[in-house]
Each structure stands twice: as C-alpha cells, then as structure tokens.
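tool_call: predict_structure(chain=1)
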Amino acid sequence: MKAVLTLASNSPRRRELIALGGWMFHVRPAEIDETPHPGEPPVAYVLRMAVTKALAAREQLNPGGIAVAADTTVADGGEILGKPSGPKEAVELLWRLRGRAHLVHTAIAVIRPGESEPLTDLCTTEVPMREYGDEEIFAYVQSGDPYDKAGGYAIQHQGFRPVGELTGCFANVMGLPLCHLSRTLAKLNLPAADDVAANCQAALHYDCPVHARILAGEG
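tool_result:
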C-alpha cells in the first residue's frame, strides 16, 4: 500500500505546496510550544521546531505512515522575527525590513513510526525587500494578512508584492521548500509522483534558478 504522509501543520500555504508533489497526504497539526530559547540562533530554532513537530506527529501515525513537519522563520541580523501581535507591530516589522535583505530559514523533518530521529533538511533564502511606501504598508496591514506570517508579510500576496528580485527558493519563503522535501522523501523511497519543480514554478509563476542544484543534493 502506498505510504500516506501526515503533514503536521495547519498552514494553508503548506497544504497547497505539498499537493504539488502528488503525494497522498492528510493534515494533522502538531501542537507544541514554539517559544524560542534565550539567545537561540534562527537555524537552531527552526530545526528544533521541525524535529519537535515531527516527533509529536509520529505518535499519531498509522503503520506505514510518514510524518512531515516544517518550521519557517524570518531572521534579520541573527534575530528571529516572529508573527506580529497586532497592527502596530506589523507596521514596525515592515518598516524594519523595507529596502533591505534578510534571511528566511525553513527546516523540514520526516519520520516513520518506531524511528527515534527524523531525517532533516534546511533551506535558506536571501530575501531582498523592495522600497514599498508607507501607504502600501498601511493598506496591507489593514487587510489583516500579516498577522499569521513570520516577519509580517507574505511573498505571494498579489496586492502588496513586498519582495524585490528573488534569486532563491520562492516556496521556502512561503513555508515549504518542495525540492528539499522531495529529496528527503526520496531517501525513504517515496519520490514525488509529479514533477515537483515544474509544478512549483507553474503554480507560483516563478522561474526558479536553484531547483536543479537542490534536487541534485547541492545546498
């Protein structure tokens, strides 16, 4: 019987992305404490979160199932930027990021029943923000979109479009680097049923310059 993935996330963006690989999956969010440790570096944080989610999801797996967990963070100068708590913080985050580049890290963790340690992978994308104006910020914040987004923005938002010329993984900034997930699942003999890279680029309207390198195991 074909393995069914359990996506340990309630993110609609991750659901949309994982569907592009043609895997059979269902959603079962993992409820964990996502508070960063004092002084915890962003990469260590996302890896810890992804592993913790995967281990929590493992306990609910059926035989033959595979848990897939991911965690994404926006990092500015080594500082983790979380989700804004309200309009004031959303505006301040967007002011802070405007016209500058920052990093987005997503860790993924994949585990089967009975295993003690998940397979992990990490994708990092440099994100150059454009010089959007204050009126654009206020309109975007008023839309309510920033509040469930790390860093207070969505790269794919059609009205705001906060990011300049990206040269890395677009799906990573959305929350699930599909080529990294594909190469990790391939290690468990579960390759994508569909052409992940082609589907991702078509869905996101993005000519990805890094997919071939990532699928080859580089970076």
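agent: The chain is about 35% helix and 20% strand. Proceeding to next step.
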